[in-house]
Every structure is written in structure tokens, then in C-alpha cells.
Design brief:
Elements lengths: L1 H13 L12 H24 L3 H4 L21 E4 L9 H5 L6 E4 L7 E2 H6 L2 H8 L18 E2 L2 E4 L2 E4 L1 E3 L5 E3 L4 E3 L5 E3 H11 L1 H43 L1 H29 L10 H4 L12 H24 L1 H20 L6 H24 L3 E7 L20 H5 L4 E8 L3 H4 L1 H35 L12 H12 L1 H27 L6 H35 L3 H14 L1 H34 L17 H39 L12 H29 L1
Antiparallel strand pairs: 1-2, 3-4, 5-6, 7-8, 9-10, 11-12
Catalytic activity: choline(out) + n H(+)(in) = choline(in) + n H(+)(out); ethanolamine(out) + n H(+)(in) = ethanolamine(in) + n H(+)(out)
Organism: Gouania willdenowi
Keywords: Antiport, Cell membrane, Glycoprotein, Membrane, Mitochondrion, Mitochondrion outer membrane, Phosphoprotein, Transmembrane, Transmembrane helix, Transport
């Protein structure tokens, strides 16, 4: 017994410090992350106290009152009227969900064009009609003719008065039957200008209409969507279990099925393309059709199915060519997947860990979305003093409710308290844009931290399997919980450090996308070229950082060192085994990607036929929907996430085992004094890769000798 204990101690000494004493790493970054989270909670509480998300959905006037709200004086005024609809063309509408002009709740929308000058010179009926679109308490006789407000023929669109726009032959835009009209100040306004303003003011309205239809589709089909996701989870679980016992057979079955599924997709697209030949309107191009909220319209034209067919054919050819060129390496990758299956078989709880990652990411996304909505709706209506004569209070803020009884009206009789803009004069409103930026940045940081936590937890569990000399006796009882505890207790700072670096790059990419959007209308080709180059460089940088972070987290899980040291050691370890990386790691990733593609393809095809009503046996059971692509897309995306969750465990296992046996090779030599921790199967895989390395080196040397000769 004493001899066995000494042997166990010896193997602990020659194996990495997985179970030895660890210390906290990157403490400063851990403190910074905790402070950032506290600040994030403070920003959320502040936004929730200032914002009102009802402003996005329901129309509000310039005083912040909801039109048609029961129990108020606006109960009988359910519609919103814009004083100057042309100001709605401002890009601020997209950021603040508000149009920078005075807005008023009214009983009905205007049914004719009328300016203030015409109303003053018109009949009593014109006076009364114009007065319906003035603020309460305003003396019609005292209204200045310089007031930029006019009424045009309007229609009610989701409780908002928007111009009754139309088009004549030739695409000429008209309001009513007029192509232009007077704005009351002698300026002619084209109907096209009104169209642009209406589009901006109606942006949130159209989004709300589509959102309501989508929500209605979800209420009609949620149980079928849930059933589809359950089927995807069952199929993924069955596939993983079969992969555990029949890895070689399942990989070849997976490859064949992927080729067949994509081939069927090509065949189906061709049949749809051929069936639409000669149909009226089927030859319309996607460019002529434009953007449509009802995506089923695109399925009625031939060009859509032709595009699908070409895309699937290209994917099919690429996959077949990759399989041909990688045919020798596939056998080695399959053997590595078999070894990963054994590891997962001893750590079965790892298959359910992605559920925790998904739950944490859901919390992060929900908190970010709610905070963003509250921040966007926390702007207030700002009123300022306007007058024609000298006044010491000119441009000062004012309250329209108490303005007539204030000192300002006594000192400046001709002064008025008019709406100026949406914003605020407080410190909160001055720094609102910084709060929005902070919300985006912390979203990336928290999401990347959750992902990093999952990677360290899984790699720690699989490393405990690899470095157990007597498998499975030396594996901890609860490897996932043990690894999660080590990660949170000792390495929170390192995870925060790695996720911070990645978040900075992602935020820069978001800013570049914003600049690209702003420069779309510009003609500066040099600026666009430079911006495109920067976007490409930062995309590559993000991919490199993700790769380095992933391997650094594996080294952290094994040795417990800080992030920079782990990243450096992982990088040089991979560089010393670069051929093995190409032969084993990336080929295995490709095979696992085919598995995800297969599950998504199978579930997606069945959901398409079901929700489109093409399966006659269950045609009556299919729900009636506005957009049948909504549940299909939800099931496809959900299936991919579910399959990715299961297969990410395999990918993390493969990466961990790969780094572990590279480290094992450098630490040990296979002798009795320093035996390998790898299994005989892994040693066989390594021997094959080593032989390929020697063959490639021999070929290179022969080529060099030939060139010199």
C-alpha cells in the first residue's frame, strides 16, 4: 500500500499542476471587472428610473403625454399630429425614437392642405379647422405668421397622422393630387421631401407592424417551434451518443448524409425554379421587387430559387473538394474524435454544461436589450423662450404649463415658450451617449466572459481526464463542478482580461460599421477604401484573438498561470506543433461542422415542409401564419445553437486533448521513468502524424537539394 501511494505521488509530480496549489491570477483585472459590473448595474438602475419604453410603442405628444390614455384630458384624442413633418427626415429619429418637432394629440387627422396664412385670411370654418391643430390655450389671433406649421392631407397609420402619399405614372410622388405645395412661409415643398420625412417618422411604426405580425405568428406556432427544438435536441443527443460508441461509422454516415441533404436541396430548388416558368410575375428580379416585409413574396419569383440553387451547388462542390484533398487526414481526425468520445464518456456532465452557458448569455442579452430601450426613451422635451425683441431670457429653458404666469411673460410680452428639441439639461442627459456606449461595451465584455468561463470549465474537466494516469480511477468525482470552482475562485481575473481584449476589438468593429453606414452616401472613394481595409484587418484580428484566447484558457485550466503567460506558452506550443495543428485540430473542426450542418439541414427541411403546408398528412395541423418563414427561421437558428452547444463540447475536448498531448510529448519520453499520460490510441495517432511530418521534411530537403543541384 505504501508503495502504491509513493507511485501516485510520483505521477502527480511529473504531471502538470492541475491539482497542486493555485493562486489568484490577474487580480487587478478581476477588481476592474467587478467595478465595471457595479457601474453597469448603476447605469441600468439610472436608465430604468429615467426611461419609459412605452414611448417606442405608443404615440406621445411633446409634453410626454400618451395620446388616447384613459383618465386624462387626452382620452378623446388618440392620434398624433406633427407640426412640421419635414423635420422628421433628421437622422436623430433613428437614435432617439422621436421626431424633432412639436407633436400634438388630436381627434382626427387633417383632410386637406391649409397653412396659417390661408387660415387667417379664410372663413370662420377655416379658423375653427386650423384651431383643432393648435396647442390648448393658444389664442389663434395672436399666432405669428412665421410659425412653421401646416396641415396636409393625411392618413391614420397606427395612430399617427402621416401624409397621404401616392405615385402617378412615371413614379411621380404626390400628396393628394399635388406634387408640391406652400408651407405657409412662401417656400414650395416637394412631395418627395415629405416622402423622405414620412419614411423616417414611420420607421418605428412599420417596425411595430411587422413586430406585431411576427408576435402573432409566434403565439400561433410556439408549441410547434418548441417541438422542433426538442426534436433538434433529441437528434443532437442521439448523434452524440452514437458518436461515443460508433465514432468511425457515424463520421462517415455524417459525411454521406450531408452530401445527400445538400444535393436534395439543389434538386428541390431546381424543381421550384422550373415550376415557376411562365407564371405571371415570376420573372421579376429581386432588385425590382425591392425590400418586402412579407418574405414569402420572394419565393414566388424564379430568381430567388436560382440564387438558392447556385449557393447550395457552390457549398456542395467546396465540401466534396475538401473531402477529396483531406481524405488521408480524415482517418487520423476520426481517431482523435474516438479519443474525445472516450473522454466525454467519462465526463458525461460536460454535455449539459452548454445549458448553463446559454442561460447566462440569455441573462446578459436581456439585461443589455432592456437597458438600451430605457436609455433610448429617457430623453425629455426641452422648451425654450423665443421672442422677436430684446429679452434677457431669450433661449432660456421654460415650462409651458407655468409660462404665462411667470416673470418672463411680464418682462417680455411678445415672448413664447416653444418646443426646442428632445434631450435634457441635466447631467444625466448630457452624458447619455456615454451611457449608451458603456452599455454596448459591457454587453460584449460580459458575453465574452461567459463564453470564456465555459471554455475554461470544459478544458479543466477534460484535462483532468487526460492527466489521470489510471483512467478512470484518478478522475475526480465531479470534474465539471471542480473545474468550474477553480475557474471562479482563482482565474476570474484572467478570464476578464482575455474577454476585455476581445471586447475592445469588437467595439472598434462596431464603430467601423457605424462609420461605414454614415459614409454610404459620400463619394469619397479613398475614405471608403481605407475603411474597408480597416474592417478587414480588425475582422482578422478578432479571429486571431479568439483562437489565442481559446488556447490560453486551456493552459490556464491546466497550469493555473496568468493570462499573458498562458497565452504565450500556448502560442509557442502550437508553433512548435504547427503541422499537427493543421492535420488534427482543423480537420476535426471541419468534421464537427459537418455534423452541425447535418442536424440543421434535417430539422430545417422538415420544418419548411410542415409550416408551408406541403405535407398532406399533417396539412390541417399546420398553423395559419402571416409569415411562415418566422417559425422556420426560428427552428433553424435554434437547431444550430443546440447542435453547436453539443458539438462545442466535442470541439473543446479535441482542442484540450491536442494541447495536452503536445505538452505530454515535451515533458515525457515514454520511458519507465517518464511515461506518457496519453492512451495507446492517442500515441498511435501521434505516430501517424509524426510519420507525415517526417515525410514532408524529407520531401522539402529533396526539393532543396534538387534546386541547389
Amino acid at each position: 500500500m505504501r508503495l502504491l501511494q509513493l507511485v501516485d505521488v510520483y505521477y502527480c509530480l511529473i504531471s502538470p499542476s492541475l491539482y497542486l496549489h493555485r493562486g489568484c491570477t490577474d487580480i487587478l483585472c478581476c477588481i476592474l471587472f467587478i467595478l465595471a459590473l457595479l457601474g453597469y448595474f448603476a447605469v441600468g438602475i439610472l436608465a430604468w428610473s429615467q426611461g419609459d419604453p412605452r414611448k417606442v410603442i405608443y404615440p406621445t405628444d411633446s409634453r410626454g403625454q400618451f395620446c388616447g390614455q384613459s383618465g386624462t384630458n387626452l382620452e378623446k384624442k388618440p392620434l398624433l399630429f406633427y407640426f412640421n413633418i419635414l423635420k422628421c427626415a433628421s437622422p436623430l429619429v433613428l437614435l432617439e425614437f422621436q421626431c424633432p418637432t412639436t407633436q400634438l394629440c388630436v381627434e382626427s387627422c387633417p383632410d386637406r392642405h391649409l397653412t396659417l396664412v390661408k387660415a387667417k385670411l379664410g372663413t370662420k370654418e377655416d379658423h375653427d379647422y386650423y384651431r383643432r391643430y393648435c396647442k390648448e390655450g393658444v389664442d389663434f389671433a395672436q399666432i405669428k405668421k412665421t410659425l412653421n406649421s401646416f396641415e396636409i392631407l393625411s392618413l391614420t397609420v397606427t395612430r399617427r397622422c402621416l401624409p397621404a402619399l401616392g405615385t402617378m405614372k412615371g413614379g411621380v410622388v404626390v400628396v393628394g393630387n399635388e406634387t408640391s405645395f406652400d408651407d405657409g412661409q412662401g417656400i414650395t415643398v416637394n412631395a418627395t421631401d415629405v416622402l423622405q420625412a414620412s419614411k423616417k417618422s414611420n420607421l418605428a411604426v412599420e417596425a411595430r407592424q411587422v413586430a406585431m405580425r411576427i408576435f402573432e405568428d409566434y403565439t400561433q406556432s410556439w408549441y410547434w417551434i418548441l417541438l422542433g427544438l426538442v426534436i433538434a435536441m433529441v437528434v443532437s443527443l442521439i448523434f452524440i451518443v452514437l458518436l461515443r460508441f460508433l465514432a468511425g461509422i457515424m463520421v462517415w454516415v455524417m459525411i454521406v448524409l450531408v452530401i445527400l441533404v445538400i444535393g436534395y436541396g439543389i434538386f428541390h430548388c431546381y424543381m421550384e425554379f422550373a415550376s415557376l416558368k411562365g407564371e405571371p410575375g415570376a420573372d421579376v428580379t429581386i432588385r425590382d421587387l425591392g425590400i418586402q416585409t412579407d418574405f414569402s413574396v420572394y419565393l414566388q419569383i424564379r430568381q430567388t430559387w436560382l440564387a438558392f440553387m447556385i449557393i447550395l451547388a457552390i457549398v456542395e462542390v467546396i465540401i466534396i473538394l475538401l473531402l477529396i484533398f483531406l481524405r488521408k487526414r480524415l482517418l487520423i481526425a476520426i481517431a482523435l474524435i474516438k479519443e474525445a468520445s472516450r473522454a466525454i464518456g467519462h465526463v458525461m456532465s460536460s454535455l449539459f454544461y452548454p445549458l448553463l452557458t446559454f442561460a447566462l448569455l440569455s441573462v446578459v442579452i436581456t439585461y443589455w436589450a432592456i437597458t438600451a430601450v430605457f436609455l433610448s426613451t429617457s430623453n425629455e422635451q426641452v422648451y425654450k423662450v423665443f421672442n422677436n425683441s430684446d429679452c434677457p431670457y431669450s433661449r432660456d429653458t421654460c415650462d409651458p404649463a407655468t409660462f404665462n404666469s411667470s416673470n418672463v411673460s411680464a418682462v417680455c410680452p411678445d415672448a413664447e415658450c416653444l418646443f426646442a428639441f428632445y434631450g435634457g439639461e441635466t447631467v444625466y442627459h448630457r452624458y447619455l451617449i456615454l451611457f449608451q456606449f458603456y452599455n454596448v461595451f459591457l454587453f460584449f465584455w460580459c458575453a465574452n466572459f461567459v463564453t470564456a468561463l465555459g471554455q475554461v470549465t470544459l478544458s479543466g474537466a477534460f484535462a483532468s481526464y487526460y492527466w489521470a494516469y489510471k483512467k478512470p480511477d484518478d478522475i475526480p468525482a465531479y470534474p465539471i463542478f471542480s473545474s468550474l470552482g477553480r475557474a471562479l475562485r482563482y482565474h476570474t481575473g484572467s478570464l476578464a482580461f482575455g474577454s476585455l481584449i476581445l471586447s475592445l476589438v469588437q467595439v472598434i468593429r462596431v464603430l467601423l460599421e457605424y462609420l461605414d453606414h454614415k459614409l454610404k452616401g459620400a463619394n469619397n472613394k479613398c475614405a471608403k477604401f481605407m475603411l474597408s481595409c480597416m474592417k478587414c484587418c480588425f475582422w482578422c484580428l478578432e479571429k486571431c484573438i479568439k483562437f489565442l484566447n481559446r488556447n490560453a484558457y486551456i493552459m490556464i485550466a491546466i497550469y493555473g498561470k496568468n493570462f499573458c503567460t498562458s497565452a504565450r506558452e500556448a502560442f509557442f506550443l502550437l508553433m512548435r506543433n504547427i503541422i499537427r495543428v493543421a492535420v488534427l485540430d482543423k480537420v476535426t473542426d471541419f468534421l464537427l461542422f459537418l455534423g452541425k450542418l447535418l442536424i440543421v439541414g434535417i430539422v430545417g427541411i422538415f420544418s419548411f415542409f410542415f409550416f408551408s403546408g406541403r405535407i398532406r398528412a399533417v396539412e390541417d395541423a399546420a398553423p395559419s401564419l402571416n409569415y411562415y418563414w418566422v417559425p422556420i427561421l426560428t427552428v433553424v437558428v435554434g437547431s444550430y445553437l443546440i447542435a453547436h452547444g453539443f458539438f462545442s463540447v466535442y470541439a473543446m475536448c479535441v482542442d484540450t486533448l491536442f494541447l495536452c498531448f503536445c505538452e505530454d510529448l515535451e515533458r515525457n519520453d515514454g520511458s519507465t521513468e517518464r511515461p506518457y499520460f496519453m492512451s495507446p490510441e492517442l500515441h498511435e495517432i501521434l505516430s501517424k502524424v509524426k510519420k507525415q511530418e517526417d515525410d514532408q521534411l524529407q520531401l522539402r530537403s529533396q526539393l532543396l537539394q534538387f534546386n541547389y543541384s
